Amino acid sequence: MKKHISLLFIIFTCVTTAFSQANGKAKGEVAVLKEVSGLEVVQSIYPEAVAVEKGNGVWFNVVDAKKKVLGYCLSSKPYSEGIIGYHNTTPVIVVTDKSKIIKKVAILSNWESPGFLKRLERQKYFNSWDGLKIGEASKKKAPVDSYSGATISATALSKNVEIILNKAAQK
Asked: Residue 15 contacts by C-beta under 8 Å, 6 or more apart in sequence?
């Protein structure tokens, strides 16, 4: 009887391990919220920025203490609810200069695995749109399959970038 129980336990362990690996979830991985504010991302490009204010349509104005517009940004947050990455939604912010040329794309507050996001950073994923005008960038497709080990996150992030750039290109 003990042999049968031991055998069942071993089979159960093998099946659950295989199932968790097939679903892409690392054994024992715990999702943790990483807080990232839009202003924090904007200030990495415009250190003198003190606020991000609603502009026209999907656009936000990046302003300094004297309310001078330094550049612009877009957030996919209102449009990203159904786009799920490895753990949850993956909203992005796109920061541009006054000519609406992209200076930075970054993920906002998220539940993604930090290791996967680091892989994307090392592989220059977030730089894929840098230097492009909004119209050009909205037509660009980041090759998500080429981001080894982070395909689920890259796919969700790309959908977020695509949504917000398409909305911005229409305005």
From this structure: none
The amino acid sitting at 158 is: S
Domain limits for position 103: 31-170
Query: Domain for residue 68, yes or no?
Result: yes
- 140 lies in some domain: yes
The dihedral sign for the CA sequence 47, 98, 74, 139: negative
Number of H helices, E strands in the chain: 5, 5
Q: What is the pLDDT of residues 25-52, one digit of tens each?
A: 454 567 789 999 999 999 999 999 999 9
Residue with tokens 């909205």: 138
* Structural domain count of the chain: 1
Provide the whole-model pTM: 0.80
d(CA 63, CA 53): 7
Please tell me the distance from the alpha carbon of residue 15 to that of residue 149, in angstroms, as a whole number. 23
